[in-house]
Amino acid sequence: MLVNLMIVDDQSLFRDGLKTVLDLEPNLHVAATAANGKEALQLLNPDTLPDLILLDIRMPELDGVATVKQIKQLYPEIKVIMLTTFNDAEYVMEALAHGANGYLLKDIEIEKLVEAIHDAIAEKMILPPLVAAKLAQGLHNINPRKPSSALAELTDREKEIALMLTQGFSNRQIALALFISEGTTRNYISTIYSKIGVTDRTNAVLFFKEQGL
Question: Can you give the pTM of this predicted structure?
Fold first, then answer.
């Protein structure tokens, strides 16, 4: 399957160089580039949307955090990977809270970037180990209860769904696997969030991975 990409970065040398490299990859095509979030939003056409956007964090006009928020509100089906030089947990948390599908540092090897693109298309959360470790540290501030006691509150079915979350299953995939409706799946996940003291999928996954689930 051909994956159409958009690259959004204010550094033209990086943006153009990345386009050249990615266009050489089988099944990848950079359909558009933009210098900032405002320009990216103007380029999005409902009839020819990219499958995935590589989005820088710090840009003039409209930064990456504000941009991903608007993209996900308008076109939630578009996958977005934040691509930046800034290894900052605060930016990571904010971008992911607004719906980003992952976060990578710009010094990543091209092979790893290509792999991450395909993983994101396959509904997997993309986080480099260093960033994931920083986020996991922050879970202690989010959940004041002992992790083991919070995990023990989950029912067997909730633990089953929690395991699927850590493996990157979407709500639809969980529903199909367990022969339940997507609405029921969402209700289970909402209950899981409440029991472990988080408010979103990313922190739930990090919590469960920290607990070895």
Answer: 0.65
